[in-house]
Amino acid sequence: MLNKRYLKVLTSACIILPVVFILISLFIGRYDLGIKDIFTILVNGQNWSLDPEHAIEYSLVYEIRLPRALLAFIVGGALSISGGALQGMFRNPLVDSGMLGVSAGAGFGACLGIIFFHNNFMIYTLAFLFGIIAVLLSFIIGKIYDSAPTVTLVLGGVVISAIFSALISFMKYVADPLEKLPTITFWLMGSLSRANFQDTAIALIPIAVGALGIMLVRWQINVLSLGDREAGTLGVNTGLCRAIVIVCTSIATAGAVCVSGTIGWVGLIIPHIVRMIVGNDNRVLLPVCLSVGGCFLLIVDLIARSIVSTEIPLGVLTAMVGGPFFIVILKRTKGGGSW
Amino acid sequence: MNKKIFVLFAVFFFLASFWAGCAKKTAADLTPEEGYIIVTDYLGKKVKIKENPDYIGSIFAVASHVLAMYGDVEKIVAISEGNTRDYLFCEIYPQILRARIVKGSNTLNIEELAKQPRPEVLILNPEVTLDESMMKQLDKFGIPIVTIAYDNVEQQQQIMELLGTITGREKEAAAYNEYYRNIVELVTSRTAEIPEGERKTVYHAINELLRTDQADTLSEDWLNLVGVENVAFSGEERESIGTNKSYLSLEELLQRNPEYMIINGGDVLDYIEASPQLHNLKAYREGNIYLLPLGVSRWGHPYSIETPLAILWTAKTIYPELFTDVDMEKETKDFYLNFFDYELSDSQVAKILSGRGYKDIKGSGESGI
Question: pLDDT at residue A299 above 60?
């Protein structure tokens, strides 16, 4: 499987496809802009923007569609690579990027931010912080019973997620139903509609750090997925390795979630799709996850913002596309798939 | 190695895109200019807008009601989805359905909004304008944004005036406000004489049985004008309830045991009918549970254009002996004829007053958002 030509083709596909999709997404939207106009804007952007007649069209392409496409890509990529890494590490196909409580924790942080501060900076910061805190708590729970660390860790994640979900419900209960509650509800559904360059930059830093970290230990994830004892005999420090994976996936996921809200399914489905295409080797699987996950969310967001004039919430679409797919995958893996 | 290069490339690509997309900031220009006016909105922000704009984005159900009432329905080019569920409104002004729907129950679709004909002024509710990221995107279009909302009767009249100023319909706004003041005057002059202890206790259910008036909202204010005791705020509890709480528990409701209940959704009425645990409420035993009428909006809802009618109707419903000379059918007909220039048939009046005719309350449609 790992022959050089195949890898070359795969690598170029992973780089070219996102670029192509980002470009395509500049051309599609509710606002009618001719293909010719968009080319003019792309080639001659700054000059075009000086003309007040066309300033809006310039803004649309460069300041609304482009940051949104980029944000969709990095968020999708971050969620899938984290999901893929965690699935490998836990040797469990049902794990996703929010497994250790990041999403629920970040949701709670965002609720706090919306209710008490109502400004973006605090919402992002609190979401990120509580995402990390949730994972830390799961990790501590995982430490309690040391002889089966992965199982307790997963359990810890489930418990912490449940606690934070309950806290979210409580925040919704106390929130002002006219002004705060709609914001909270919408945040929890996940959306990229507010994307701008600043938000994208904020999200990019933790995502890039997390993703790079995961990339660097992807061989060790392969070893971890053999099981703890086997990994130990191969000379891998399983505890350290697991900690690195957990830290990196949490940072990447929290970075994505704090800006875009909780977007389900991407971190669960994409690694499975990719596994069917490139197999189980994390060295190949994870980078491809990054690219494919990014493209998937990009396309879903494109649908969300352009099919009807009232934006469809992203969480609805990812589940509607991802849900049926997941069933198909389950069916196939049962028949001797890649797990 | 290939993959590490790929990662570096990807990071570089994103960074490059940020530089490409760096935006220049334009400060709000407030210098007076021929053909422009400067208004102050609900948030106290000064906004410069074109005099008599030809295209208006009205992304707040009540704003569309008001603008249409003033005679400018043709100028509305963008609305929120809620307006399409205001059935009587759409019956009176079918033109409204030609406007683009740019907001569902969630967020503004910025591209749909930017389409031609592009609004020259945008009327929004605070929920949207308090959303920083959304405003950052809107800023790029340079469309002036007027935020409207109101927390009491006085403010509602100011907002009516503001919308009149924006569209050059000061006369229409003044006529509406005069009617509004007359109704308030008529009702308060008659109910003022009722001594504290003899005022009826009233519970106002909003959308759900246990959701009621928040402190400092229009519905708290207009119910006070009617001269009743609102059980949502019994005595010293008003403070502790605070502005964030708008729900009572079932036990609290039973304990406060109102003599009258006014309700703004048909399904709440059905729920009460089907719930024996509520049948010992004084209001139920005495047959004093009423559905608020539903016309263009649900009368008396926090963002209702028919607030004056709600005041009159509630006063007559609760103190019929004081308002024997008021004929609600006639008042209703006159209101829609005078302000919407629309003649209601008798069956339409009955439909409005029954509170069930024009829509059934589902989701956010009737929240005025």
Answer: yes
> What is the torsion angle, in degrees rounded to the nearest 10, for the CA atoms of residue A76, residue A78, residue A79 and residue A81?
110
Distance CA B357, CA B351 (A): 5
Confidence category of residue B367, pLDDT binned at 50, 70, 90: very low
Compare CB distances from A11 to B2, B81, B132 and report the shortest one's residue.
Answer: B2
- pLDDT score of A221 more than 80: yes
ipTM of the prediction: 0.73
Q: What single-letter DSSP state applies at residue A95?
A: -
pLDDT in tens, B163-222: 999 999 999 999 999 999 999 999 999 998 898 888 999 999 988 888 888 888 888 899
User: End-to-end CA distance of chain A, in Å?
Assistant: 16
Give tens-digit pLDDT for A31-80.
888 888 888 777 776 666 666 667 778 888 888 899 999 999 999 999 99
Question: Based on the number of CB atoms within 10 Å of its own CB, is B99 exposed (0-12), middle (13-18) or buried (19 or more)?
Answer: buried
Return the CATH architecture of domain B172-367: 3-Layer(aba) Sandwich (3.40)
Distances (CA, A) of A43 to A24, A34, A106, A141, A328: 15, 14, 40, 55, 43
**pLDDT at residue B289 is higher than 80:** yes
CATH class of A22-334: mainly alpha
Query: What's the mean pLDDT in A223-251?
Result: 86
Size of interface A-B (CB pairs under 8 A): 140
Strands B56-58 and B76-80 turn out to be parallel
Q: Is the pTM of this model over 0.95?
A: no
The domain segmentation of chain B, as residue ranges, is: 36-169, 172-367
The residue that leads in pLDDT, B237 or A281, is A281
Contact criterion met (CB < 8 Å) for A63 and B6: no
Q: DSSP label at B211? A: B
Domain B36-169 sits in CATH 3.40.50.1980:
yes
Q: Is A193's CB within 8 Å of B107's CB?
A: yes
Of A11, A19, A120, the CB nearest to B133: A120
Mean pLDDT on A158-163:
93
Closest to B28 in 3D by CA, of B11, B41, B9, B13: B41
Q: Do domains B36-169 and B172-367 have the same CATH topology?
A: yes
CB-closest option in B136, B243, B367 to A196: B136
Which of B176, B164, B174 lies closest to B37, judged by CA? B164
For chain A, which residues make up each domain, given as ranges? Answer: 22-334
Q: Does B244 touch chain A (CB under 8 A)?
A: yes
With residue A80 as reference, give the H or E element that holds it. Answer: helix A66-90
Contact B307, B339 (CB under 8 A): no
- The encoded tokens of residue A192 equal 């990229």
Residue in chain A lying closest to B142 (CA): A56
Question: Which residues from B are below 8 Å from A212, CB to CB?
Answer: 7
All residues at 6 or more sequence positions from B289 whose CB lies less than 8 Å from its CB, including other chains: B260, B261, B262, B263, B269, B272, B283
| Angle ∠(B125,B131,B135) on CA atoms, nearest 5 | 90
Phi and psi at residue B76, to the nearest 5°: -80, 115
CA distance B109 to chain A (A): 6
- Give which of B79, B80, B83, B76 is closest to B55, Cα–Cα: B76
Residue A188 has pLDDT above 80, yes or no: yes
Closest CA to A276 of A222, A330, A218, A337: A337
Report residue B44: phi and psi, to 5°. 80, 10
What does the mean pLDDT of chain B come to?
Answer: 85
- B72 or A330, which is more confident: B72
What is the C-alpha to C-alpha distance for residues B343 and B352, in angstroms, rounded to an integer? 13
Question: Does pLDDT of B365 surpass 70?
Answer: no
